[in-house]
Amino acid sequence: MRPVDIIYKKRNGEINTKEEIEFMINGYVNGQIPDYQVSAWLMAIYFNGMTKEERYHLTMVMRDSGDIIDLSGIKGIKIDKHSTGGVGDKTTLAVGPLVASAGLKVSKLSGRGLGHTGGTIDKLEAIPGFQTAISKDEFFKIANEVGMVVAGQTGNIAPADKKIYALRDVTATVDEISLISASIMSKKLAVGSDGIVLDVKTGSGAFMKNINDAIELAKSMVEIAELNNRKIVALVTNMDQPLGDNVGNSLEVLEAIETLKGKGPEDFTELCIELGANMLDLSGLYTYENAKKILKENIENGKALEVMRNWIKSQGGNEKVVDNPEEILPISKEIVEFRAEEDGFISHIDTEKVGIASMVLGAGRKKKEDEIDYSVGIKILKKLGVKVSKGDIIAKLYVSDKSNVKEALDLLKAAYKITSNPPKEEKMKLIYEKIVGGK
């Protein structure tokens, strides 16, 4: 078998066999096939795509390149949740305790943020004392006793994906449905959950800007899970504006806590209930409608908040943050206001620019080595469709002496479009589509 023959087949729009895909991926990982040949193959995939079976074989060979996490030590049903990333997306922090309060076990391996989207691990580490580097025994113990645990991703889950992604990043082959699907699902299928709920973001703040592309990506990932006999539901959700009101690590933890107190933003609360209900429905513990009812009740009666308190304490964090988040979380006291420059309706938000504005304040990383400032971020006061007058405060920037305030304000000015007419309602719809598979 020769790499050039495999490249030739894919270049001509033919189908690569399971053995050929294994040969290319394993050969690249172990250094036997050079990056220029794998680059040529990736470009051929970019232009010609892959069949459902090819995507599955690519996913599985990348999954099998590293550790497979056995969760059988955790009693009960385990349903994983994954978001493709967005601005203000702190759903794990609220959904986890919420579904755990209804009897589901949530055991997640999460990552750090890079670029305009935040990372769950960074947000959790804004809580004083919270430990994300925990042993396997601790991970299982917390999951069994509390029902909720989140740890940093180990370095040996799907290492082939890490190496392939680095190559895609420098060869302009990142945004191809088959390659994105295999990248995400190789890591999801490496963890032995009973089912997966995917939150596939679409819009100006998402990786998939176009709704049709996002639906295609969701369907592709559902097909891969089905071929692996894994239960799955994918929701395609709106990222044409930040999710919730707060962007930035401590601010997002604060919002998750307030949401479990029943005081969260309407859109964020709705998405948390929706994701949670689908997780519980997939588990078989409740029907979808009953799950929504139970989750709302567990916010009202404080059960979800109590799980959050126990979870934070179990991972070394200061559990008093649940009672006094604004006192315990590091949140900057220095605030700069971003104001409307004209009258009208907010008709468009370039959400990616909002995420980048938060990053340049210090809440995110341009490169992996950068340190983040937990205290900074942005509070959005006006969102899509809202009527504003000149001088109204659109957003508050929480800044530090290291924040690039001018750049952040320039980004927000470019992000917000104010017109005489409001946007179409479709722009503000929260959930566009639900794709169910694997049952």
From TrEMBL:
Example of a GO MF term: thymidine phosphorylase activity
Enzyme Commission number, as recorded: 2.4.2.4
Matching PROSITE patterns: THYMID_PHOSPHORYLASE
UniProt key word Transcription regulation: no
UniProt entry keywords in alphabetical sequence: Glycosyltransferase, Transferase
Keyword Transferase recorded: yes
Domain Pyrimidine nucleoside phosphorylase C-terminal: from-to ranges: 345-419
InterPro entries, A to Z: Glycosyl_Trfase_fam3, Glycosyl_Trfase_fam3_N_dom, Glycosyl_Trfase_fam3_N_dom_sf, Nuc_phospho_transferase, PYNP-like_C_sf, PYNP_C, Pyrmidine_PPas_bac/euk, Pyrmidine_PPase_CS
Pfam families given in the database record: Glycos_trans_3N (PF02885), Glycos_transf_3 (PF00591), PYNP_C (PF07831)
Main enzyme class: transferase
Family label: Belongs to the thymidine/pyrimidine-nucleoside phosphorylase family.
Subunit structure: Homodimer.
PANTHER family for this protein: THYMIDINE PHOSPHORYLASE
The protein's name in its UniProt record: Thymidine phosphorylase
Organism: Marinitoga aeolica
